[in-house]
Each structure stands twice: as C-alpha cells, then as structure tokens.
Amino acid sequence: xxxxxxxxxxxxxxxxxxxxxxxxxxxxxxxxxxxxxxxxxxxxxxxxxxxxxxxxxxxxxxxxxxxxxxxxxxxxxxxxxxxxxxxxxxxxxxxxxxxxxxxxxxxxxxxxxxxxxxxxxxxxxxxxxxxxxxxxxxxxxxxxxxxxxxxxxxxxxxxxxxxxxxxxxxxxxxxx
Length: 176
What we know:
Elements: H1 8-11, H2 14-17, E1 28-32, E2 35-36, E3 41-43, E4 53-56, E5 64-71, E6 85-94, E7 103-106, E8 118-126, H3 144-150, E9 158-164
Parallel strand pairs: 3-9
Antiparallel strand pairs: 1-2, 1-4, 5-6, 5-8, 6-7, 8-9
C-alpha cells in the first residue's frame, strides 16, 4: 500500500476514524454484482442492497479471518454520533475462500445513507485461531479497534472502502 497522503485509506480518513495505520498483507476482493469495490469508489444504495461476494487471498486453509463492515459516518458525516455503525460481521472465514464460508455473527444490513456521503469500510483481520465471537447488543457505536483488541485480532491485514449516498444524491466526497 502506498504510504503517506497517497494511501487512499489515509486520504479517505479511514486510517484515523476507524483504523490505526497498517500494511495490507493479503488480497481482499469485494464485489457487488459485477462491480468491484475500490477505495473511494461511488456506489448507490441500489447497487449494494444485496450482500457482496468476498474473496480472500492466501493459500493456507488453516488460517482464518474475520470481516467487519462499518459506516463511520452514521447517521450523517457532519454528526457521526452512531460511529461506527456495524453492517456486517463474519468470522472463521478460511483462507482462499469467501465470507459465505465463514460464520455470519451479524447479518448483512444494506447501506441506507440519508444525509450526506457515507464511507462504508470493509476490514479484514487474521484470527489467531477459530473462536466464538458474540454479536454486540446493537449495531450503532461499534468500535472496530476495541473489537479487534477484545478478540486478539491485532492489526488488519486488508481494508477497502466505498462511498455511498442517497439514490438521488450527486457529487463526490470532499475532505478537509
């Protein structure tokens, strides 16, 4: 991953708002229909209504991963009082497989941004071992860093985010 301001996770403030700095070490491919998710791409709610396909690189079936999808801009980017809103949580995903082979702890909830342009962040962690993970009591105010610490997940091995706004919204996200 590029360092400094060229890193799209830094430019998009995913590093800082959701994650601490890390280096990607594995391929993570997220696909909605025929559209791959690339950092900062724009997707409409209708394009992300159905659970995406997730493909994880690697070649050791004894390694397992945890995938988290959060919205750090809920309910609105100017007032993210629900930061982070948990949209999906899947554990025990085998290397070389996808999320459909894991344990869905929190089912996929489609993005429904009402105000402004929201970032939706997929974060992939390598697990130390297969383990029981409990669903949080609510989706709002989830904290990816605290979750990783609680389950001894260390730094992420990959992350990617997309921007999404109401179907009728237009324009791109700007950063201060």
